[in-house]
Design goal:
The protein is of the alpha+beta class. It has two domains: 60 residues, no CATH class; 48 residues, no CATH class. The chain is 44% helix and 17% strand. The chain contains three helices and three strands. Strand 2 and strand 3 form a beta hairpin. The longest helix has 20 residues.
Amino acid sequence: MRSQHTPGSWTFEFIKSPDPDNIPDRFTISGNGSGKIGELSLTSLIPDLEVQEANARLIAAAPELYDALNNLAHLGSLSGVYDGLKERNWWQEMLRKAQDALERAEFGA
């Protein structure tokens, strides 16, 4: 079954905790008009603020990354797209990776 995700665009925001002893600082990920999608807490697992910010940026870019990858996979499947490409094997490998990533995103494979 193909999964549905909250439509983009997504944003992220750093939230400083008013009570850091009980509630860690965190990044929230929000959908355009959909409210909060998720949260990344600064815990002992990944205490580095820069790493967590990079993770939040990547998650927030997910809808746009998905669309771009989907377009690439569709383009690669069109007949004749390989004509004249010197590095056909490289292109086929990139297309396979794009299709595998889309399958993971859509079906959790």
